[in-house]
Give the backbone structure.
Amino acid sequence: MSSHGDPIPMTSSACGPLSGVAEVPGDKSISHRSLILGAMAVGETTITGLLEGQDVLDTGKAMQAFGAEVINHGGGSWSVHGVGVGGFAEPDQVIDCGNSGTGVRLIMGAMATSPISVTFTGDASLNGRPMARVTDPLALFGCQAVGRAGGRLPMTLVGAADPVPVRYTVPVPSAQVKSAVLLAGLNAPGETVVIEEEATRDHTERMLAGFGAEISTEVTDEGRVITLKGQPELKPQHIDVPRDPSSAAFPVCAALIVPGSDVLVPNIGLNPTRAGLFTTLREMGADLVYENEREEGGEPVADLRARFSPDLKGIEVPAERAASMIDEYPVLSVVASFASGETHMPGVKELRVKESDRIDAMAVGLRAAGVTVEDGPDWWTVTGLGHGHVTGGVTCASHLDHRIAMSFLVMGMATQKPMSVDDGGPIATSFPIFEALMGGLGADIQRGG
Ligand code: S3P
């Protein structure tokens, strides 16, 4: 089932070379943060290039429920009139974050140190995901949470009336948890310190600094120690959202496996905490070139040129790279199916608690399509068959997970028989123009099973 409405089965069939320019949408992580930080600033933040996927739209609606004015000016241009740190009003409705773990976890952090009660819910996928990883550290500030068994949504949080600052070591590599604690720290007096042993995406830290918060990061023996001074006045910003490397992954990977392809994916943010997939693909022998490398808004950016790569090899993906490509393992497993030899992916326990259990969701579909996959609690190995040898011809469950649906549709572009997904509806959460964009490059994606 799609998150809203009837399931939308989709089928992808082998196609001729993919070619042209793939203008992928804005970065999902930065889009959520733009709306939330805009709502916590005093005055008007303007945003261009916002991802208008359902996840981000749900966060925008939530910010309105907290009292911020969120206006869509059309064409990806938005403004947020913020209420200031500590200025959130108590919403008079349940906050429905749809499919978005990032949305709900960051918003929980942002409200946790205000004296308001908020009830959160989501779709069947989100309501099955663990929230204690966020509500445990928020309790240290004085925020109380009551949810369903196992710390699941729906859940009500009562924000701390007299918050205290916190020093917290994040026990799992999660930018969502780190960000929730930092956003809660905004309305606590004194210094909140978050320590992460493994570096995860650092957009919250960069953007908080941009909004005028006092925040610093020190790399020590403990890991990355991030210190935030509480109760700043955040100054409104103009944010030009860079394009999403996690969405770029789909046309890039499709070009690598479809014979004769040559695709340009311009203006992709290559923040090192996000770019692990591209490093991995190059190690596998992908013809993937960074063109026009430059800096924009303090972030490295390049145009990616991906061409058909007939001699891909399986590799060992270093566990320490996992956080920088955590959302890209599903589509990497597709590329690995067309490589020769084993691609071993260790250190990926977090994949089991995403929008779906992504190892399981991919392993079931890949095996049915003729690929050998082995897996354990925190690792998986895909044994590739080489170009032209992957059978396909199966219908896969997308489990309300946009990246699972898009990965199997990319796979069908190069398998002997078409690949179908039971529901492509969730694609709209992060990449609403996926079908049109891939079709424009020459892909054959049809509605129907
Ligand atoms: C995100 C962090 C990651 C990622 C998600 C977006 C973010 O989740 O999977 O799609 O914007 O902070 P975790 O922090 O749970 O690893």
User: Anything to note?
Assistant: Residues 28-40 form the longest helix (13 residues). The CA atoms of residues 195 and 225 lie 5 Å apart. Residues 29, 102, 174-176, 179, 200-201, 326-327, 350 surround shikimate-3-phosphate (CB under 6 Å).
